[in-house]
Amino acid sequence: MTEQIVQLQGITKEFIDGGVSHRVLDRLDLLLTQGDTIALTGASGSGKSTLLNLIAGFERPDAGSLSLLSEITTSWSDNLWSHFRRVSLGVVFQQFNLLTPLNVEDNIAFPLRLNGLDWNSWCDHLVDSLGLRPLLKRHVETLSGGQQQRVAIARALAHKPRLLLADEPTGNLDQLASLEVMKLLCELAAEQDTSIIMVTHSMECAQFMQRRWHLNNGQIHE
Ligand SMILES: Nc1ncnc2c1ncn2[C@@H]1O[C@H](COP(=O)(O)OP(=O)(O)OP(=O)(O)O)[C@@H](O)[C@H]1O
Predict the structure, then answer these.
(1) Pocket of ligand 1 contains residue 218 by CB under 6 Å
(2) Which end of the chain has less Cβ packing within 10 Å, N or C?
(3) How far is it, in rounded angstroms, from Cα 41 to Cα 140?
(4) Which residues pair with 185 in a beta bridge?
(5) Is the sign of the CA dihedral 205, 209, 214, 219 positive or negative?
């Protein structure tokens, strides 16, 4: 049976700005099942990052219910949210957000250590597929943007998460590096049936995903 990875029902999120309430997500419904890959588009300020932050548990909805891996999260404690993020979630950011005191190998091993896991054949496969083998002992701040984003992808997938959230993962890369990063990201995620929600402003990058969600006026249009 295909598993439900993310389900939002009637999700509303408002922020107070200058004493005025501003509704960013408006009774939003959506369903993401195992292996689904989504390009999330929408104008600046339409709520894309807010949606990712809700799914990662960094924001709480004002109304509605959010289920992750078929469990309703409404009563999850901070510990359960941390467990979900550590075990089931991988994240890739525009700014790479690598651990700069560490080398490439230690960055990739970081989520494994958090989960009490050792380096394994999947990590070797990630490293080889992403062309990182010659760079393993290099400090990440000495790498190019494209190389750093490939490390970020390996780190995000090392613990075989069920869901990958990517916020403009190619926003800092030139066109050639963007396309290469997108291709590798999709291929490697597909190998573990990892679902992806990727925020992008690039139609070229959106083409790599199976589905499109466009966020407008607090609603998703597919
Ligand atoms: N913590 C917050 N407090 C107040 N307002 C917020 C907060 N977070 C987001 N907002 C507001 O919510 C709206 C949506 O912001 P969000 O960052 O989700 O948009 P976005 O679609 O990701 O934009 P961009 O493409 O520019 O990154 C914006 O008007 C923003 O100012």
Answers:
(1) no
(2) N
(3) 30
(4) none
(5) negative
Q: Name the closest-CA residue to atom 7, ligand 1.
A: 15
Does ipTM top 0.95? Answer: yes
Atom of ligand 1 lying closest to residue 52 CA: 18
Q: Is 104 in the pocket of ligand 1 (CB under 6 A)?
A: no
CA of 158 to the centre of ligand 1 (A): 30
Looking at CATH, the fold of the domain delimited by 4-221 is given as Rossmann fold (3.40.50)
Residue whose token pair is 């909805």: 61
| Helices 175-191 and 145-157, axial angle in degrees (round to 10) | 10
Q: What is the secondary structure of the chain as a DSSP string? A: -PPEEEEEEEEEEEEEETTEEEEEEEEEEEEEETT-EEEEEE-TTSSHHHHHHHHTTSS--SEEEEEETTEE-TT--HHHHHHHHHHHEEEEETT----TTSBHHHHHHHHHHHTT----HHHHHHHHHTT-GGGTTSBGGGS-HHHHHHHHHHHHHTT--SEEEEESTTTTS-HHHHHHHHHHHHHHHHHTT-EEEEE-S-HHHHTTSSEEEEEETTEEE-
Cβ–ligand 1 contact at 17 (below 6 Å): yes
Nearest CA to ligand 1 atom 18: 47
The 10s digit of each residue's pLDDT in 72-123 is 999 999 999 999 999 999 999 888 789 998 999 999 999 999 999 999 999 9
